[in-house]
Task: inverse folding
């Protein structure tokens, strides 16, 4: 009954005309960023973050969340029609989606992707609602040691599950942690690593850093490899799935939804892994695995459902523990902090309008996305025909103005350029930037909880082991770090050989 | 010994990039230490302002060293891309840096117009009048939108517009 009351309360907030407008704006921009290759939801959120200062926190979070889950919808369009994923989480959709489009079935592929996304998105919001409130009650009992350990585990998981080497993920995370310490020390107010530069005393801004790492670096990479894209020719018809299409895909949609939601909760798991797991699972259990890769509709339904469900699942750790599961959530985390709100269990207690307003706006957002992605599919196809060479100057312009407008400072534009180069080099040498951003965002809280724990224990590090939850969580993190640093498999192979 | 040396040299050549990566992290470590000089590091009982940067710097150095060592035992990574920025990449970066330097003197409107002309030219548009029109229109629209509507304060420059 409580949940229903809160749901009603949430709808009373989400249905306010201003919040409905920001929800529509968010899902529209989200679909746009998903459709257009070259700018992802993280870039879009960071671009729009400065514009949210003047609006209420609940409207801001509704809009920014809409961008995130809207991008998952839009990402499938480019995967199916161009064979180029608009989003990393839609990479696997290209395998069967593009084949379907080549076989003249672009309509059913786009249709099942949209309906699958809608079903998954709606179910994930229900699961989020059911799971978040009880988890918040548990999280309210957490003290600084538990928080410290949970953040360490979150960062470890993100680094561990990152693409490529886990060790490089850890290096990236530590680097982010060092960067977040630039500026005045909170306790002693002494400047740290500012090198006498006044602009650094407030620390590095989240927006210029993210815009550099995810906006500018993406453009620089594309400039090295640029080429315009070839869209699948032919009219898009039969967008509403037939009875056979539904029969073939409904199981895949539900399995993708469940696996996607729970993988989305894991920090570092997210929509990308969820889509790959869902695809692999469908192929494994299919009676006709040979159809996969040749235009199987399940191969579109499963990953598209999974990535949307994962987008919903990612809100669980943010709202319950205050730990962002991915970079987009880190941006939401930053947005809440900018509005003077601390994400985590206290958010539900002190600001239920943000929590329930955002969750219920997702129900509405999913309906809006279905409308945007089915009757208006022609609009998105038209947008895809805009050459990238025309888009890139506009994206760059937004990066420059977005960085500048935060504090009306050219120094922030310089920071954006520096991190653009860092992001470019990191991608070229095989380092992931996601762990860096997450530890950059979580760093101040991590330092704070460590210092608080040490004050409580009078300097004894044993406090992290004496608290049972903290001890178990740290043990898991420690094992993961150890397995990444020490090549156990090679050592065992060597022992076996000798 | 004679056999080890050529193999070590070969490894060094193959792992040259890993060496540069390690060197970069070593420089970062020294920068971190330099950035906290004069600050108290303290200990777990009484952590000073330099406590966290110092220990995270040590951790970074340790992880970078392991990464470097593992690149020797594993060999060079095939997944690495060649770092050879195109002239477009260099021009874009140079353009933004020039914008940062010149905007306070020339003002937002003129510098953003010049920057857009550069960006569109780089993208291979042959029609220069088209470039001038689209750059001018974008600069004016951006100016009106951000200054009039969003109340942003851009550098005004010698013309006093911005």
Result:
């Amino acid at each position: 009954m409580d949940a229903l009351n809160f749901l009603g309360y949430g709808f009373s907030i989400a249905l306010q005309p201003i919040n409905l407008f920001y929800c529509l704006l968010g899902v529209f921009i989200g679909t746009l960023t998903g459709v257009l290759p070259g700018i992802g939801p993280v870039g879009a959120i960071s671009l729009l973050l400065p514009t949210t200062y003047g609006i209420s926190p609940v409207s801001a979070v509704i809009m920014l969340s809409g961008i995130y889950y809207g991008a998952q919808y839009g990402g499938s369009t480019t995967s199916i029609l161009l064979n180029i994923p608009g989003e990393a989480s839609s990479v696997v959709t290209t395998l069967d989606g593009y084949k379907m489009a080549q076989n003249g079935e672009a309509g059913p592929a786009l249709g099942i992707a949209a309906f699958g996304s809608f079903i998954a998105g709606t179910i994930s919001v229900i699961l989020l609602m059911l799971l978040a409130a009880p988890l918040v009650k548990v999280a309210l009992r957490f003290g600084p040691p538990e928080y410290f350990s949970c953040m360490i585990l979150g960062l470890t998981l993100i680094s561990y599950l990152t693409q490529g080497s886990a060790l490089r993920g850890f290096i990236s995370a530590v680097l982010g942690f060092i960067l977040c310490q630039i500026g005045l020390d909170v306790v002693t107010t002494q400047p740290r690593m500012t090198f006498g530069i006044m602009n650094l005393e407030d620390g590095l801004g989240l927006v210029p850093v993210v815009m550099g790492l995810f906006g500018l670096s993406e453009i620089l990479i594309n400039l090295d490899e640029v080429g315009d894209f070839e869209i699948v020719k032919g009219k898009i018809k039969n967008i509403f799935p037939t009875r056979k299409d539904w029969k073939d895909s409904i199981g895949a949609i539900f399995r993708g939804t469940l696996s996607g939601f729970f993988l989305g909760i894991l920090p570092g798991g997210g929509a990308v892994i969820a889509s790959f797991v869902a695809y692999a699972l469908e192929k494994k259990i299919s009676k006709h695995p040979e159809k996969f890769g040749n235009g199987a509709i399940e191969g579109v339904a499963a990953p598209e459902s999974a990535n949307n469900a994962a987008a919903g699942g990612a809100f669980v750790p943010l709202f319950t523990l205050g730990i962002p599961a991915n970079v987009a959530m880190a941006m939401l985390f930053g947005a809440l902090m900018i509005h003077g709100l601390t994400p985590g269990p206290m958010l539900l207690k002190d600001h239920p309008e943000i929590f329930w307003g955002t969750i219920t706006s997702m129900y509405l957002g999913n309906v809006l996305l279905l409308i945007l992605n089915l009757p208006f599919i022609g609009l998105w196809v038209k947008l895809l025909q805009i050459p990238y060479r025309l888009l890139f100057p506009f994206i760059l312009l937004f990066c420059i103005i977005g960085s500048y407008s935060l504090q009306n400072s050219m120094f922030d534009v310089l920071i954006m350029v520096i991190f653009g180069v860092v992001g470019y080099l990191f991608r070229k040498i095989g380092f992931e930037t996601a762990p860096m951003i997450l530890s950059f965002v979580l760093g101040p809280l991590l330092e704070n909880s460590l210092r608080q724990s040490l004050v409580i224990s009078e300097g004894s590090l044993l406090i992290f082991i004496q608290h049972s939850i903290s001890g178990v969580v740290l043990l898991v993190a420690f094992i993961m770090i150890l397995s990444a640093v020490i090549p156990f498999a090679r050592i065992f192979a060597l022992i076996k050989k000798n | 010994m004679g056999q080890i040396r050529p193999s070590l040299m070969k490894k060094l050549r193959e792992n040259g990039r890993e060496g540069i990566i390690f060197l970069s992290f070593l420089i970062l470590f020294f920068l971190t230490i330099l950035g906290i000089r004069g600050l108290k590091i303290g200990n777990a009982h009484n952590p000073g302002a330099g406590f966290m940067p110092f220990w995270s710097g040590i951790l970074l150095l340790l992880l970078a060293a392991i990464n470097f060592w593992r690149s020797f035992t594993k060999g060079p990574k095939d997944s690495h891309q060649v770092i050879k920025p195109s002239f477009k990449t260099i021009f874009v970066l140079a353009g933004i840096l020039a914008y940062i330097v010149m905007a306070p003197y020339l003002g937002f409107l003129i510098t953003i117009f010049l920057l857009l002309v550069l960006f569109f030219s780089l993208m291979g548009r042959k029609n220069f009048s088209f470039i001038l029109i689209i750059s001018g229109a974008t600069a004016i629209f951006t100016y009106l939108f951000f200054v009039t509507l969003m109340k942003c304060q851009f550098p005004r420059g010698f013309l006093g517009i911005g």
